[in-house]
Amino acid sequence: MRYKPNQQKLLRWIALFLVGTFLQLLFYIPTPVLSQNSNSCSNITAPLTPEEQTYARGAWQYFVKNYQPATGFTNSTGGYPSGTLWDMGNYLMALNAARWLNLTDQADFDTRINKFLTTLNSLKLFEDTLPNKVYNAANAQMVDYGNNPLERGIGWSALDVGRILAAFDVIRTCHPQYNDWLKGIVAKWQVARSLKDGQLFGATVLPDNKTLLVQEGRLGYEEYGARGYELWGFSAPKAISLEPFKLVEINGVQIPVDTRDFKSTNANNYVVSESYILDGIEFGLQGELADFAARVLDVQKRRFDTTGQLTAVTEDNIDRAPYFLYNTVYANGANWATITDANQPYPQFRSISTKAAFGWRYLFPDNAYAQKVFDVVKDLRSPDDSGYYAGIYEESKQPNKALTGNTNGLILEILYYKAKGNHPLITSSSASVSTGKPSENASPETPSNQGNSPVTPPIATPTDTPKIVEVAVAPIPPVDSPQSSNLKLDRPLTLIERRYAEAAWRYFQANYHSKNGLIDDRSDFKGATLWGLGDYLAALHAARSLDIITPKEFDQRTRHLLAVLTKLPLFGKELPGRGYDTRSLQSVDYGGNPIAEGNGWSALDLGRILAALYNLKTCHPEYTTAVDKIVLDWSYLRVVREGILSSATVTKEQDGRSLTRVNPETRLGYEEYAARAFQLWGFNVEHSAVGGEYQTALVEGVKVPIQRRRPDTNSKVNQYTVSNPFLLYALEFGLDPQMRSLFEPIFQAQAERYRRTGNLTASATTLIDRKPYTVHSTITGKGEPWVALADNGQIVPKGRLVSTAVAFAYHALLPENKYSQELLQGTTDLYNPLAGFYEGFYETTGKTAVGFTNSTNSMILQSLLYKVMNQQPLIRPTVNMKSPWWQEVSKGDSGRGLPNTTRQQTKLISDSSGSYWISGSEKTPLVTGTKVIE
Prior knowledge:
The chain is of the alpha+beta class and about 950 residues long. Helices cover about 35% and strands about 15% of the residues. The chain is built from 25 helices and 41 strands.
């Protein structure tokens, strides 16, 4: 570096001050004055006009049409699957802007960023140090700038690293649930290797295959890149100091120019608009940079005044060779040079840049010239709605039809900056959690809720009610010697599996009632069913076994749940009811309306909680006494009758009387699951357990079960087939030969549909965020294949979902199956790190189904546990047959309908097909000819 005498430096700064003072009289320079709340990411203080909303939607379409679903990246240019770290930073900034401008919803945002960060975290790094300069956006392979795969790569760019670090800061500020993930990515990169002597250094590969570190950045971009580094604690004082530069007079304006030119350093010292625009909208123009930016805009106005040629110059892709040019104010000794990176001139392709015109218009909103050049490009969108073109050629006056993420991303950033009242996007105090909606957008209709039982009744929309006071319940006293789970895991979770498990557990943190220990069945409703509490207990066990939560948290939550189970009012003083308000503990219907006398009980829900309680005392025997006390308070006289499970409902007669009716359970899959759970406790439910003859329907050439043939009931309630109960059965009890004969055709039909149509299929009962709020995406229902049904049996057009939980479970059970692998790949990114996994996505649109449930996140945790247990059934056999439960059973008739023998009615066995529970009376397995296809 060449140092100048102090006198010369003083004179230069005096000159700068005088000229800068004059320019600031001509230009409005936005200096942020932040109030306490105005810098919130969601605080839209200057909503976009209808015309500006059109601009934003047009720019966002570029990213919609150039999205690569396999990686979560976007193409750097239209249709070309390549991208640098700078391009990735553009996309993150655009995605954040799109979220707060309400161009996309939270579910889509989470899906996109989860896939993006998953891929980014797994990128192969150049020399295991930093990301390569460029990757194939479609498959994340390291490539050269021609998109040719290279095993080693071509080096790294420090400026690109600075760009994405700035984008990371915006994401972690506006969406703090991703902070830890981003910190982990940055920690994995050896960022310090790109810093030397207080400057930014990139890496390049020489012809002899050696790596050379090269100083990067010239005045404008160097300072911008260094600011990105500083946000993450990496200091580059020389890079941010503005030096070395000189003043060059162009069109009567003194323009600051970096003295390190192409001749002396083999790098261009171009002066362009974009670096100053980025600094302004992201960090806020202040001090010398504000003055420099005003000069760069003014000189372009002066050129227009002199030549009549509207001017907005910066680097851009073009739609013909050489495909990328720097349109400059100055470069390497030449005014208004248009050059390649190798300093080759192409003046005939100088253009008015769309992104530069947008930037100057919104950075200097009162500047007449900025408005004039903006008006020329503001509608320069492609006719097929693929985004904004890069600009207009000065010479031919024709559009430069290059479509790029850089142009469209910067437009979105600029419009978001405007919507925030011209406040910079990066501030030290800005913070906003992204689980809500943008402040200036209308809120969507919020559904009321129903219990998350296997089959959910129609929703009743609650009216305004007084605020409910949450009842406090003290946990049961500490148990003797709390122990860790006695499960033996075959292996630990992988890093990615752990992230999924932690995300699923977030649901149970976000929806926990700390005063009483309950969990909401779904995030938008304060209610719980016994099925949902069984889900929670199973999730609690899985989270502890996977070391997602500490022994202390597990013990505290478990004791709290066991305590509240003793406080729930029993229907008819016999059994827990169908639903409870998770605040008041009052009995409610599925619409959340209080029902003092209750509305019956569900044998299916009882089976779910009995399975979870049984496994709790098996794997954590210190809770045995407390568990047995709960279930001994219940009466089973009417729920188990003549070997059949029955449920109670309450009906209103015309004369106003409420009558209780008890009827056998017949819901396919759910009855078999609940029966196996009752057998664990010694109940004889042989007629409800899996077995006998099943009626089938031909779906995709496969005989799919639709109902059991039985003489004991004519019930036609909810005759449809979905995956959920069969998967839960398989995870917890294993696939006995009889259940396997049902499970395999159900899976096979879905795989065959995918092969025939290309539609991913994971049929399940899930919630959605609009009427009818709960949808059964059936394999067959009402005699039709692949129909989506509401609870009332009405068809829901375009309502089919691909269930996230079903995808996880099928992959856990069938990890080598190609279709289960496809399912998992299609759903693993459907989560919000603060709220858990979404229900799934719509088959027809691919749009994420907004909503979070206990059931989905519990099944995901159980599926992950199943994977690391060497595919052993999650329900483990007990060795303690002298617990309080069995002691009471041994006493004989208790008036409570307890089992009449002191032995379980099911047992865990192993054979060549695996381990599974079977009914105690079974002697010979049923052989099935159905096999899971590969």
